[in-house]
Amino acid sequence: MLRAIIIDDEPNAVGLLALRLSQHCPQVELVASCTSSHKGVAAILDYRPDLVFLDIEMPQMNGFEVLESVAGVPFSLVFVTAYDKFALKAFRYSAVDYLLKPIDTPELIQAVQRVEKSRKTAPEQIQHLKGQMSNTGKTLPDRIALPYQNGVAFVSLMDILYCESDDNYTKFYLADGQHYLATKPLRDIQELLEERDFLRIHRQYLINLSHIKKFVKGEGNYVVMTNGQSIPVSRTQKDRLMERFGWL
Q: Which of 77, 137, 227, 230 is most buried (CB neighbours < 10 A)?
């Protein structure tokens, strides 16, 4: 059973989320619902919950200030937000879970299921997210947070050679020879990185175009990466790859 707290200054939002949890997430025990950020801090310190649903924009203290006030208390975090498209990208690059208002029931169920399988939200993830949210230039991050079995790794995008699908996980191969098995499917990684000079050239592979050494055409098209690894290019993706480079 997951002991949970909701912190949101909108009473209607709190009531609706509590109702959805009672109806669709029997593994969650709601131990406190708070419409004040100060009461939310007190509830976290008192109850030491497994899971906190937290709004970001609140009077008196925003969501980040709430988290700073309870630093050292471990729990899984799901932000509940009405932020714009850029901010949602920041959540994803930081590997911090979120629900977009109005809350969709299937997404809520999936978020709770992810919490059951994952570790507690790392402070480094929150700091990474906070930095991106305060980015007035609205530029996408140069680093991505990769949740893996032993924690969270923060990796420069330029250091990623390619990604390989492994069922509901993704293997990241880095230029220095390291690799990580991230707890995200390749389709989720593709959605983020194809905006940043990456391309899915095969159902199993997403590559960093900056690390292509050569492209070999023939019956079995493939690229050779800067580490010498050969990666197949599917027939359906060959034209997209050639188009990105303007090859004839």
A: 77
Read off the amino acid at residue 20: R
Q: What is the 3-state secondary structure (H, E, C) of 139-176?
A: CCCCEEEEEECCEEEEEEHHHEEEEEEECCEEEEEECC
- What backbone torsions phi and psi does residue 235 show, to the nearest 5 degrees? -60, -40
pTM value > 0.70: yes
Q: Tokens for 60, please give them.
A: 């008196």
- Helices of type H across the chain: 11-24, 37-47, 63-69, 85-93, 105-117, 123-133, 186-193, 235-245
CA–CA distance, 53 with 78 (Å, rounded to integer): 5
Tokens matching residue 68? 């700073």
Pick from 18, 20, 42, 39: nearest CA to 30:
18
Is the distance from CB of 190 to CB of 200 less than 8 angstroms? yes
- What sign results for the dihedral spanned by CA atoms 27, 29, 35, 41? negative
**What are 104-123's pLDDT values in tens digits?**
999 999 999 989 988 789 99
174-210 pLDDT, tens digit per residue, is 999 999 999 889 999 999 899 889 999 999 999 999 9
Nearest by Cα to 31 from 22, 117, 203: 22
What is residue 122's three-state secondary structure? coil
